[in-house]
């Protein structure tokens, strides 16, 4: 018993007390059995930060960082990774014209026509008199029209 006390853990101290007084052991067991189960009204918060849904707030610095990384991937030939970074940049800064234009170009290269059309139209709505608006309008006209369901 003295050895367990020297270890200092609460479990060993509790076990020593229970060995010394058996009546205390029965009292503790009766209390744990009679205690009502904890109500599960709400789910506990997610502990793994990777599984939490990402919350985006306006952050142009983070958007620029993602654009830079997207440019790197795009130039290396990894268009899909570049597209993901451009999409991430538009979530951090929805008014970023550079991110929208590069996202549209990446979507077009990956044959994601609805995504490219959406990014081009958002780009044009942000700044209609842009210096490359005519080029973007021509690219938008060249994209195939979506099929209408009958």
Q: How much of the residues is beta strand, in percent?
A: under 5%
Q: What form results from the Cα inertia axes?
A: elongated
Give the helix/strand class.
mainly alpha
Q: Give average pLDDT, whole number.
A: 82
CATH C-level label of the largest domain: Mainly Alpha
Low-confidence stretches: none
Our count of domains comes out at: 2
- CATH fold annotation of the largest domain: Serine Threonine Protein Phosphatase 5, Tetratricopeptide repeat
> CATH homologous superfamily of the largest domain - what is it?
Tetratricopeptide repeat domain
- Radius of gyration based on Cα positions: 30 Å
Architecture (CATH level 2) name of the largest domain: Alpha Horseshoe
Walk me through this protein's architecture.
There is one protein chain. With 150 residues, the protein is mainly α. The protein has helices at residues 2-7, 10-20, 22-34, 60-76, 79-92, 97-109, 113-126, 133-142. The longest helix is centred in the middle third of the chain and has 17 residues, at 60-76. It is elongated. The N and C termini lie far apart (83 Å).
Describe, in short, the structure shown.
The chain has helices spanning 2-7, 10-20, 22-34, 60-76, 79-92, 97-109, 113-126, 133-142. The chain is an all-alpha fold and 150 residues long. The model has no long low-confidence stretch (mean pLDDT 82).
């Amino acid at each position: 018993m003295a050895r367990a006390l020297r270890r200092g853990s609460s479990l060993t101290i509790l076990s020593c007390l229970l060995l010394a007084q058996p009546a205390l052991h029965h009292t503790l067991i009766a209390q744990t059995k009679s205690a009502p189960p904890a109500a599960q009204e709400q789910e506990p918060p997610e502990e793994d930060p990777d599984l939490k849904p990402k919350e985006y707030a306006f952050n142009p610095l983070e958007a620029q960082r993602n654009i830079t990384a997207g440019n790197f991937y795009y130039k290396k030939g990894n268009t899909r990774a570049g597209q993901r970074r451009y999409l991430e940049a538009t979530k951090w800064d929805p008014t970023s014209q550079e991110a929208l234009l590069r996202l549209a170009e990446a979507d077009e290269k990956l044959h994601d026509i609805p995504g490219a059309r959406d990014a081009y139209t958002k780009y044009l709505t942000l700044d209609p008199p842009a210096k490359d608006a005519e080029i973007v309008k021509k690219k938008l006209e060249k994209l195939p029209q979506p099929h209408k369901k009958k």
